[in-house]
Structure formats: structure tokens, C-alpha cells
Amino acid sequence: MMIFDQLNKGDRALRMLAWGVLGGLLLILGQLWRVQVISSDRYRASLQTQSFKSVRMPALRGRILDHNRRELVGNTPRYRLDIYLDELRPQFEAEYLREKRELISARKAALASSDQDGWLTGLWNRLRHRNKSVRLTPGDLELLQRQSRYTVVSNTVSAVGSRLGTRLLLSEDALHAHYLNRRFLPLPVIPDCNPTQVAQITEQAWAIPGVALEQVAVRSYRYGSLAAHVLGHLKRDDNPDEDREEITYHYRLPDFVGAIGLERSLDTELRGTAGTKAIQVNSQGYRHRQSEELLTAPQPGRNVVTTLDLPLQQAVEKALNTVKGGDERGAAVVLDPINGDILAMASAPGFDPTEFLSPISTARWEGFHNKEPERPMFNRATYGEYAPGSTFKVIHALAQLENGLDPSETVTVRPNPADPGHGVYYLGNRSIGDRAPPGDYDFRRALIKSSNTYFIHYGLRLGWERLLGMGHQFGLGEKTGVGIGEEAVGDFPVMEDIPRRGWNQGNLANVSIGQEITVTPLQLAVAIGAVANGGRVYYPRLVHRIEPYDLFSDGAPEGVLAGQLRSEIKLPLRYFDLVRAAMRDDVLDDQGTGKAARLPDIAVCGKTGTAEIKGNGRKDKVTWFVSFAPFEAPRYVVVVMIESGGSGGGTCAPVARQIYRHLKDAELALTKGFAGG
């Protein structure tokens, strides 16, 4: 009252102060009205926003190319149909309330109908429970929420299927797991839309809430199973090594890691650097609309340019498929003896790497990928260990020449009483069969007729140390260093192994003709390359260079040097000339075992081999043809190995002939191209 009395007395200063206070109060009331009434919805939504989710975004994987930069492995767009659960929340809430009301009504009806001993008791129960509330437990409410979500999403999926004219199924467990762990990300409905579905989706103006078509990059093996063992395949990377990551991610988008082949050995280069995006989510875990932020963009992986030649690789695999009507088990390697470059390398049977981008069923794995004896996943070119048979006589011959063999000296092959058309060698009480006919053999004839008697005779004289020493100079018993993980060392002993194994003269006789030792086709190709070039053993090169994904970027290519010398066999060139001439005659001479590889316009030099495989109650043969061409200036090494073949000359030499035919035709086409230009 005193304040009002003073105001009435006309105290001007006090009156101004009073109006100022009143104005301030009105301003505060106006702001409260704006915040609590006008902007209430926006602030309510803002209060729900509580955190960010960091998401790892895999980079675009680098491509794998042949030496002319023709793409062998790349990436193609795949269209995926997704459902965003956050856009279906109003429907979740409406469905939840509807199902809740139905459940309460049903339980009330159940209570009212209980205990009906008569019409009077039933009437009393209905009156008693009519206004009584039904309480739902937390478990009831959680189940209702789960059911309502599934009903809404399954109805949406059904609507999508109806539009596309196909039946789509939704797993309730999968939906529940996605809702609990990653509801801020879309739920894939169709992981791989076919072109017809993409056209239907894009041509129609869809009004189905929450449904969106997304484009993702998928690994593409352009030629299916071609060079699959070299290129390799991917596998899902669901359990990454988080210690390698600088950021702890809440979620990782689907990613893949190399499993075998170049995809695995160069995974770091091909994989690139992952990016990061932040997704703002509310307290319920849903994506906050328009709140996705790219923190770091993914950096694509680098391209790998190989030494492979695409047309030659196709020709090699086609030639292998001619054996046994495509049911072959074998391998072929084409090598450049001048620098060790691998021009083609194949293992048969093969597999399609694309299969591994999706889960493979146990039935498919056991019935195809791991089926014996085919084993399509087994890289026979680098991981298969086989007795070289008579192909080892090439290396054995150089050891003999190094230790004073007179090429003109002859050894007599005795006739085999059990097989008069062929020879036999007697070692004590043991007889060793010889496919060469009886007669006298000098060095040249022994090699082209592949006489066991000749090489056993001189092998026993040569001894373990000098024979094994020559094999080790060619790299036998060691990995070649080709650069893919699937590589075996073979079984080629050192001197210390001989007494430990208890080997005797009988074992030495066997090793002299390529038995009881094992090599890989690639090891043998490297060795024959050294014979062709005069003694230089090169590391085989499979990767030519690694370059940026975008050639116009600032990154510089990283080349892998060709012709990296592993060792050099210090023998007079005339010894190599003698062996090479005998290998030429093995193909050119009508009595030669390799005559099936003969071509009129290129001098192929080769050696056949056949070895027996015994073990696990199984008896089989492995057949070989090792070769180089042309004789005058070797440019190619071709090694062919076939399991369960008839003979090296009958089974493998014709395959090599087809490969050389392609090589010669390719050279002619290149020459004509230059002439025309």
C-alpha cells in the first residue's frame, strides 16, 4: 500500500522505476510464452537428442589389372532397398496403442466371463469388473512394443513385395536384433535388387514411408573363375582388429577383407582408408533427422597392376579344360625366363570368387568347394606338392655334366623279362621299370627317351650331396617368393635329412628319376626358366606396380622391379646348351616323349614326366610337361601338370601345344599391328 501511496503523490522517479519493472516482467512473460507454448515441439525434440554414433565407412577397394591395365577385379554398383525405422515411429506408436487397447479389452472380457456358475453370478462379475482397470506388466508392454514394430515393418515389406510382384519375407528375430543394436542405420530389405526391380522402383513414385533405394559398391570379378586362385576372394570382416583403428566406432558398415590370393597378400594396399560419419541419435536410438555428418571421407584403395596377360590367361585355362572334358585336376604356369614375370598361372578346377561375397551354406562348401578329390579351393600351381618324375632329369643332367659326365658315353638298358618292349634296372634284389626300350643310350637319347636306367646308373655314382646341391641351386625345397600366401616349399631334402630319414641307395635311385621328392609347378617353372636363360634363377614377379586409384591424383605409382636375381648357377654355357638341345629334340624327334607339343613355326623344347602317387590307400599318377620356347632365344616357359593323367607326353604336352599356339598367334597379331600402324 505504501508503494501505491507514493505513486499517487506524484513521485516521478519512483513512477518511472515501477513502469520499468512492469515492462521487464511483461518481457519475461512473453519469452516464457514463446519457449513453453510456441517452440515447445522443437525444444521437446531437442531434449530427446542425446548422443552421436560414430560409423565406420569402408573405402572403395582398389582394382586388380593385367599388365595392359585391363580390369580383372573391380567394383560395380549394387542397388539395395532399405527401410529407415525412424520414419515408421508414428506407425509404431499407433499400432502399439491399438494392440494395447485390444489386449486390455480381451483381459477384461476374460475376467468378466470367469466363474460363471449361473446367470446371476455372471451378471455380478460383469458389473464388478466393468470399471475395474487391467494392469499390464513391464513384460507385457515390452512384448507389445516388439509385436507392434514387427507388424508395421512386415506390412511395409509386404507392400514393397506387392509393388515389385515378388514375395518378401522378414525375420522377426533379425528385425529385433537390428532395432536393439543399430536402429540408427537402415534395415536392408532387398540386399541386391535386380535391374527390373531397380527400374520398377525408380519409375514409380513410391509413397511407402521409410523405404529408400541405396547404391553401394560391390566387388566384381569380371571373368568369374578366371585366375581365381591368383586373384583370391574376400570374406566378411565382422570381427576386425580394433587395435588398428584410431577411432572406436559404435558401428561398422559391412566390410570385407582379403581371404586368399592377391586380395589377401595386398589387402592393406587394396583396402584403402576407412572414413567416419557421425549420426546424431535421440534417447531411443533413432537417427535424428538431418543430423548425419561426414567427419572424414573414405580414401579408396590403390590399384594393383599384375604381370598377367588376360588373353593368355584365358587361353591357358581353356587349354586345361580340354583335358578329360573339363574334369581335370591340374595346373599350368607361363613364365618369362628373361625376367621371371608370371604371364599366366592357373589351377583347375576353379571357383567363382563372387560366391564368397555372401554366406556359403555347409552343403555347398562340402559338396563343391571342399569336395575330394577336386578341391576347387586348392591352388595346385603354388600349393600343390608333387613328385616331378622324369622332369627332374633336366636338373639331374646338369649335375652330371658339372661332375664330368661324358655325353657320348653309353649305358645299356636291359630288357624287362616281364615287359620285353621296355627296359629294367636291377638294384640288388629290386627291379625298377624303364619305359625306354632296351638298347644303348648316350646323354641325348637318354633324355629324349627318358631312360630311368641311364639316370639311375649315373645318379648312384654322383651321390647325394652333388645331386641335392644342384636342386637347391635351382631353389627346390624353398618358397619362390611369388607374393601370395598359398605357397608350399615342397619336399626336397638337405644332406642332414638323409641319415635322419634312413635313406639308402634305393632312395637315391628313386630321387635320381624324380621320385620321393616333391615340387610345386611354380618351383619347376622357375627352374626351367633358369635352364632356358643359362643359369639365372629369378624371383617370380606377379605384381608389376601399385598405383593410385585415381591416376590423376598426387600419389605416385610404386613399381616392383623385374628380373630380381635369386641366384646364379655357375656352369659353363655348353652344359646348358647340351640340355637345351636335348629338350628341343624331345619335341622335334619322332622318338621323343614330348612330340605332341610340336609346332611348325616355333621350336618348343620340353621334357615329359610321370610319377606315381601312393598313400591313404590310393594309387594315382601325376603327369608333367615342362618346356620353353623358342630354342634360339627363349621368351616363354610353359609348365603343365595334370593329376590322374595318362602320361606327360599324352596328357600334358597337347595342353602346352595349345598355349604355345596362342603365344605365337598373339605375336603375329602384334607384328601385323605394328606393320599396319
Report on the architecture of this protein.
With 677 residues, the protein is an alpha+beta fold. Among the domains are: 49-75 and 221-302, Penicillin-binding protein 2a (Domain 2) (Alpha-Beta Complex); 310-362 and 381-676, DD-peptidase/beta-lactamase superfamily (Beta-lactamase), CATH 3.40.710.10. 39% of the residues lie in helices and 22% in strands. It is built from 22 helices and 24 strands. A hairpin with a 6-residue loop joins β23 and β24 (636-643). The longest helix is centred in the C-terminal third of the chain and has 29 residues, at 648-676. The model has no long low-confidence stretch (mean pLDDT 87).
Low-confidence stretches: none
Overall radius of gyration: 39 Å
CATH structural fold name of the domain at 310-362 and 381-676:
Beta-lactamase
Based on the structure given, which CATH architecture of the domain at 310-362 and 381-676 is correct?
Answer: 3-Layer(aba) Sandwich
